[in-house]
Amino acid sequence: MATQPGGRRKWMMMAGLAACLAGVVTLARIPYFYLHSHIRGQQLLHQAQQAVAAGRQSSSSGSAAASAAKVPMTSVNLLKPAQPGEVLGTLSVPTLHLTAPMLQGTQDAQLNVGVGHLTTSVMPGQRGTAILAAHNATWFRHINNLRPGDQIVVTVPGSTYTFAVTDERVVHTGTPVYNSSTPTLVLEACYPLDALYLTPYRCLVFARLVSGGSASTTDSSSLAADSAGEYTAQIPTDLTQQGLTLATNSLPMGKLTYTGSPALTYTESNQPLSASSTLVALYLGWLHASAESSATDLSALDAAEDGAQMSVNPAYGVPLKSMQHESPFDVTLHVDGTTLTQATGQTTVKLGSRGAYRVTVVAHVDGDKLTLTRVSWTPA
């Protein structure tokens, strides 16, 4: 990627300042974040589509003059500074069937619900390098599948910019991304892309502008996205009040994998993390109930309702402070199309003097509700 000559302004943006919070910070907000993230994301996507449509109408009268002036690389609305959290437009990647709202900023508030624009970079379509970041386990889960020539489309009120992928790199956090002399776009996410934890590497996809200008003709109806709700679980109130989150419990997160035939529109949404976080809450609720020797709460969590699991529960009566996880909590989701049918979690936990056990947590999914069906313990 070309850099500006030494006599011109040159600056660098450190890769990883944007999407590096994919696992630890995001999952630490169970259940609040996941109760609103997908819904809010869809609201923002709808808002962005309305803004694009409005901008298209308002710019139609001036499109001829803009064409005659031959300045397709800039647009007045792009030069207006946006406030953090402001909806800028939409990002679409046809090859991945991905459409996401694009917001100003790369803090939790933006990345939790969409794709964020790094404020220290130029806007897409302007001369220079524009950086767009998103969580690796949601919107940008499949960006490593992009190949040279694949299109990335950024739509803002009054303008559409089409970029063609040129390169993909996996770099260490802190690797500089230099500004360019031509309109360039970089997509950034934590790597590996299936990680549910903080990683020291970033996946960067580079693209160059191939067309763009005012008076967008993109049909906003093609920007529709899955509107399914977030996942929930019924957990006794006394357990939820104890805080069943990663912010209040020590549980290392592992990888997210799939079985079945998941659709890209599912894996490139916030629903996988919603399912993972709900499963985590159920598992932590089970541990808390076990530590307190609460047969009532365990029965409430047990979909079998026969009490059989309690008799083979080695964590029963073991204080939480004596439980130590020795391996990450890996999550497997069985998805057919956009329908999640089962969520499974596995980890190894040491239960004080009782030794270490390999734990498998299985939840059945009915619509948007997860219910525990099995918690098995195998001596490690």
UniProtKB/TrEMBL annotation:
It comes from the Bacteria. It holds the Pfam family Sortase. Coiled coil: none annotated. Its EC number is 3.4.22.70. Keywords: Hydrolase. It is an enzyme of class 3 (hydrolase). GO terms for molecular function: hydrolase activity. Transmembrane segments: none annotated. This is Sortase A.
